[in-house]
Amino acid sequence: MKSSVPILLTSSVIAYDSGVTLKDTKERIRLTMESIGEWVRVEPKLQIIICDGSSFDFTPLVEKQFPNHTIECLNFENDQNKVKLYGRGYGEGEIIRYSLNHSRFIADSGCFAKCTAKLWVSNFNECTRHWNGVFTCKGVFLNVFSFIKKTQLDYVDTRFYITSLNFYRNNLINAHLKINKKNQLGLEECFLKIVIEKNIKKSFFNIYPLISGVGGGTGSEYKNSASRKIKEKIRLWLIRRKKIYSHLFFD
After folding, report:
1. Three-state secondary-structure class, residue 111
2. Which helix (H) or strand (E) is 245 found in, with range?
3. CB–CB of 115/9 below 8 Å?
4. 7-246 CATH
5. Residue 3: pLDDT band with limits 50, 70, 90
6. Which sequence spans correspond to the domains of the chain?
7. Which residues have CB under 8 Å from 197's CB, separation 6+?
8. For the residues 1-19, what does the mean pLDDT come to?
9. Percentage of residues in the chain with pLDDT exceeding 90?
10. H or E stretch at 221
11. H helix or E strand, kind and range, residue 25
């Protein structure tokens, strides 16, 4: 059986945000196609949606490289001025909004996992088994291993999460409109603010999503070495033991 949770890959092969490190359009296309190949390998029957906010149509490339895999290719034009002003997080919000209005896969399933294009999650199937059926994401904490500073919840990792269609529409559809660079509120901080203000419990993964690929914003390659996996398991164990944060994690 195919996964009941389709994956939405948010893309902009033209980097309208001048602050991103990876600007080369051909390289951004190549890395996105590489990530699609990895998603097919992770789950051969996975429904994949690729939505590009710079009017690039992946259809010809996808049909040539993955002729036996049904992949939904969407594209439209982001508000370039607002992306330049507010950053790629604003563009991502627009891309997801467009996808919810045009994706047949998402409409049929009533849910979706979101991942930034050029990345993939090698333990995706395990993550879907740990999804609470509403909204599950990764919380990012500071000072977890410090003996001096208190552990602090810093932001929500918006590179990858899983959500029901209704939850996203009712709670996160306008998150990108609250981005405020002056107050250091990016999309990640806006997501966290919503989680806290709406007292959304049991919304954090109790496993570590193994995200790989290249981040377009930083240009960095994400790897999951054995030592990193062990460190992240210990980090998660330490955080969940703290009473102040235990209610945030899905059992």
Report:
1. strand
2. helix 243-246
3. yes
4. 3.90.550
5. low
6. 7-246
7. none
8. 85
9. 82
10. strand 221-222
11. helix 25-42
